[in-house]
DNA sequence: CGTCTATTTGAGTTAGCTCAACCGTCGTGG
DNA sequence: CCACGACGGTTGAGCTAACTCAAATAGACG
């Protein structure tokens, strides 16, 4: 299970540069900065840019009519956001924290990728890895309990951005409880209650609202029904 | 939202042959037949084949430790199953009905796709369309009620395999109630009850367990919170 | 015809939701 | 400097959609 299943083109098996970067001349790519909360693009906007997160975290989401929101992915540094199969974006994207992004490509309509033939195979593997990560997220959304979702989520974040310090793994939580809820298909209250329960059980510490320290990793893994 | 979001490489915007088929010499691709219920491959099996459904329907799924299952996609004719980013499959795949499949590729480890450079761009679009479809499924699993899920599901099936006859749209349901439940993240009982409720409301007819006739399409669309 | 499995229906339970109150922090303006 | 409002987070109480368990029914298939 990958936090950024939907948007990451990072390689999951062997290191490889994201192909689009290789097809773009250095001077063709620029930087863009966003303050926390600012929108990068919205569903329906003309999709003429693809971005790679350089610093900070973004979230991509979709809305349902009555205001219900589903966060599709959190985009961490190296992740790609804004890829679209046609001429408009199919999700919203906002900065979770102050963010720096590389603009990878402009004018999708006219520009073409310039692939080496030999990396096409690898590109397909990337797409498949992408899909594989999303499939794990399906399992989570469809079949896991609130506790299993939260535990899995923390484990994935720990894997990706955790730092080991004196027997604990500390994980920054740049997103709000509401973001987490909308990512996992829960409510804010349930997220909060579940974190509190983990704290009471001495599985985690919550030094402040935007960090978690995992005290008993094995216990957390058990709670996640670790099937990834 | 696509029924086969996870595995279909059919084009969603403009007609294009699946690229892998073009890279494979006719004599290199063979057929494989499965009886309903037979497994095509299992999670962890060495992934040396990619299949395209020719006839029938398959399901890809993942299991959680305690037997909970999530169906990732139903594969209908033209859909591709078995694509993997590494050397083993990451889901199970079984035939829902008697199925005929084209074996598209053998020995992934040695063989390579033979893409035209100019279709790489389109392939990437396909992958993105794929991802886009899966994202809609996220929205469904995470944020829709049982009724909305069932209604959306029926609408997608109707779109794909429905036939118009005397004011109704009739849709074959080759899969079991249990398959539907595991696709939508529900229980068999809830699926059954919801279908019964739709029948009582004269929105659908259920001539037999494996067909649905949509009598009031607009009503069904309302119930689906049609956000796709 | 008998067996097996899928489906439906009923009854009771519960995980997670809703609604509401409360707390702490932060930024703003008097 | 402090008061105030806004916002994010936590906690409590009660509700409900969907689940579990159980039993009846209906097809499917040998």
Descriptive notes:
The structure is a homodimer of 228-residue chains. Chain A has 228 residues and is an alpha+beta fold. In chain A, 32% of the residues lie in helices and 26% in strands. A four-stranded antiparallel sheet of chain A has the order 1-8-3-6, with no helix packed on it. In chain A, strands 2-7-4-5 form a four-stranded antiparallel sheet. In chain A, strand 4 and strand 5 form a beta hairpin. In chain A, helix 3 packs across helix 6 and helix 4 packs across helix 5. The relative contact order of chain A is 0.16. The N terminus of chain A is likely disordered. Chains A and B meet through strand 5 and helix 2 of A and strand 5 and helix 2 of B.
Stretches of chain A where pLDDT falls below 50 for ≥5 residues?
1-27, 107-112
The biggest chain-chain interface is: A-B, 50 and 50 residues
Report mean pLDDT of chain A, rounded to a whole number: 82
Oligomer: homodimer
Shape of chain A: globular
- How large is the share of residues in beta strands of chain A? 25-35%
For the record, give the distance between the C-alpha atoms at the N and C termini of chain A, rounded to a whole number. Answer: 6 Å
Would you count the extended β strands of chain A for me?
Answer: 12
Question: What share of the residues of chain A lie within helices?
Answer: 25-40%
How large, in whole angstroms, is the Cα Rg of chain A? 18 Å
* Order of H and E elements of chain A: HEEEEEEEEHHEEHHEEH
């Amino acid at each position: 299970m990958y936090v950024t299943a939907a948007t990451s083109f990072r390689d999951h098996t062997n290191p490889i540069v994201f192909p689009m970067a290789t097809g773009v001349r250095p001077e063709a790519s620029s930087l863009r900065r966003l303050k926390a909360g600012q929108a990068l693009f919205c569903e329906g906007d003309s999709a003429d840019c693809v971005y790679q997160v350089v610093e900070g975290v973004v979230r991509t989401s979709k809305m349902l009519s009555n205001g219900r929101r589903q966060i599709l992915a959190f985009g961490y540094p190296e992740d790609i956001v804004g890829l679209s199969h046609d001429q408009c974006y199919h999700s919203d994207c906002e900065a979770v924290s102050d963010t720096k992004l590389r603009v990878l490509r402009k004018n999708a309509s006219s520009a073409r990728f310039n692939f080496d033939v030999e990396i096409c195979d690898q590109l397909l593997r990337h797409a498949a890895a992408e899909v594989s990560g999303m499939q794990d997220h399906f399992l989570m959304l469809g079949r896991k309990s609130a506790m299993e979702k939260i535990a899995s989520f923390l484990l994935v974040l720990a894997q990706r951005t955790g730092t080991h310090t004196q027997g604990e793994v500390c994980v920054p939580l740049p997103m709000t409880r509401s973001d987490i809820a909308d990512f996992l298909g829960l409510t804010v209250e349930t997220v909060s209650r579940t974190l509190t329960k983990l704290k009471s059980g001495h599985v985690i510490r919550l030094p402040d609202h935007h960090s978690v320290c995992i005290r008993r990793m094995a216990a957390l893994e058990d709670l996640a029904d670790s099937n990834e």
